[in-house]
Specification:
It catalyses: Release of N-terminal transit peptides from precursor proteins imported into the mitochondrion, typically with Arg in position P2. The chain contains 19 helices and 12 strands. Helix content is about 40%, strand content about 15%.
Length: about 475
């Protein structure tokens, strides 16, 4: 039920959004048969109710289905040390107003799909259904968010479910490394906590904690009802008036307001590291990051282009030595790693820009890290127009091509309105990315990467990873 990819913001950005080519070349949307087309230049409409609850839609008149969901500006970042894990716990329990059997039967009878996930900054509940079933879908979402019973038996049952989920997550090395990366980069701060929370919290969270979280965070001013597909904007506005107009516009008591404000304070990036050596593992798994940019930052897209220049690589890819990324060629030729993934993970006011390395060549970890940071240094002073254009083309394709479907469009609208207050349309994204030059990339690298403190998270056979200061010194090495 919960989506827990810690590079979620990266993937939202780098896998993100829209199949536009057919429309750009002038073909009629009708050539796509029964698929749900998304038009280039579709208008996103928004309306805000008197209580601050926002409705945003992108209407496609020919679409037979719609995705409708509620995006909430609250995730694990809105918790305290004591209540860490509450947002995710609540996501599990929110489906318990109707009995599970009633809920599943109701959704199945309309041929719909209901899902939810929690991230560090958002909680999302959404459903996809036929246009005629949108009113029933909004009714269900409203019921989930406003009328959850939080019964003691359900709470105890979900404890075991979440503990098992935590065990599964702990087996996924990428998840573990990125959890530790956040914990060290934003240590002692809300953004550094995990989404599921520590085991002791999962075992001790009470109904009062869940109820307080709802009263503090599930307020109209922090919610957006999104519709994408065949649902007209005015219909969704009318449904919102019917089902969400009684939501409080803000937390009722002053202490809750103070807590909410504290969680919104910009976190401090701390140059630091965490290492978990385990020689029984066959690989070294290492993430290195500098402080990145937030969703609202003017450098947001420049950071993504810079990340795309570094690229991703996996030795299982048959064409890996011939990719445009200079680092991929060097790593492939010298057998330095199994794979690497550059990332630019953004949050509302900060982010992490870096790389995730996996290698079974544990005696050459120093070389792998050195040449990776050498590539970062090169970005500050020697970026070509050709590689910038390649990175821009890849970024525009990844951002735009996955907007092929109502769920992807709804996700794009919800995330953008919650984090930035407006939706940047696909054509605007293409225009902004297209205007970035190699000089912009080098300027970004000089300001954000060159001689900056780093956060390191390393797990596995990491004896060959040099000490923090040696790695940090490579951040200011002159390129030659």
């Amino acid at each position: 039920m919960a989506s827990r990819r810690l590079a979620l913001n990266l993937r939202q950005a780098m896998r993100s959004r829209a199949a536009i080519n057919a429309v750009k070349t002038g073909y009629s949307p009708l050539t796509r048969g029964l698929a749900t087309p998304i038009t280039y230049g579709s208008k996103t409409e928004s309306t805000t109710l008197s209580n601050g609850f926002t409705i945003a839609t992108e209407h496609s008149p020919w679409a037979q289905t719609s995705t409708v969901g509620v995006w909430i500006d609250a995730g694990s970042r809105a918790e305290t040390d004591k209540t860490n894990g509450t947002a995710h716990f609540l996501e599990h329990l929110a489906f318990k107003k109707r009995t599970q059997q009633q809920l599943e039967l109701e959704i199945e009878n309309m041929g719909g799909h209901l899902n939810a996930y929690t991230s560090r900054e958002n909680t999302v509940y959404y459903a996809k259904a036929f246009n005629s079933d949108v009113p029933a879908t909004v009714d269900i979402l409203s019921d989930i968010l406003q009328n959850s019973k939080l019964e003691p038996q359900a709470i105890e049952r979900e404890r075991d479910v979440i503990l098992r989920e935590q065990e599964e997550v702990d087996k996924q090395m990428e998840e573990v490394v990125f959890d530790h990366l956040h914990a060290t980069a934003f240590q002692g701060q809300p953004l550094g906590r995990t989404i599921l929370g520590p085991k002791e919290n999962i075992q001790s969270i009470q109904r009062s904690d869940l109820d307080n979280y709802i009263k503090t965070n599930y307020t109209a001013d922090r919610m957006v009802l999104v519709g994408a597909g065949g649902v007209p904007h005015q219909q969704l506005v009318d449904l919102a008036e019917k089902y969400f107009s009684k939501l409080p516009s803000e937390p009722m008591n002053h202490s809750a307001k103070a807590i909410a404000a504290a969680q919104k304070a910009k976190p401090e990036f701390i140059g630091s590291e965490v290492r978990i050596r385990d020689d029984t593992m066959t690989t070294a798994n290492i993430a290195i990051a500098v402080e990145g940019v937030g969703w609202n930052d003017d450098d947001y897209f420049t950071g993504l282009v810079t990340q795309a220049i570094v690229g991703n690589w996996d030795r299982t890819m048959g064409n890996s030595p011939y990719l445009g990324s200079k680092l991929s060629s060097l790593v492939a030729e010298n057998n330095l790693a199994n794979s690497f993934m550059s990332f630019s993970t953004s949050y509302s006011d900060t982010g992490l820009w870096g790389i995730y390395l996996v290698t079974s060549q544990v005696t050459t970890i120093d070389d792998l890290v050195h040449f990776t940071l050498r590539e970062w240094t090169r970005l500050c002073m020697n970026v070509t127009s050709a590689e910038t254009e390649r990175a821009k083309a890849q970024l525009k394709a990844s951002i735009l091509l996955s907007l092929d479907g109502t769920t992807a469009v709804a996700e794009d609208i919800g995330r953008q309105l919650i984090t930035t207050g407006r939706r940047l349309a696909p054509e605007e994204v293409e225009r902004v990315v297209g205007a970035i030059t190699e000089k912009d990339v080098m300027d970004f690298a000089k300001r954000k990467i060159w001689d900056r403190d780093i956060a390191i998270s390393a797990v596995g056979q990491i004896e060959g990873l040099l000490d923090y200061n040696r790695v940090r010194n490579d951040m200011s090495r002159m390129f030659s």
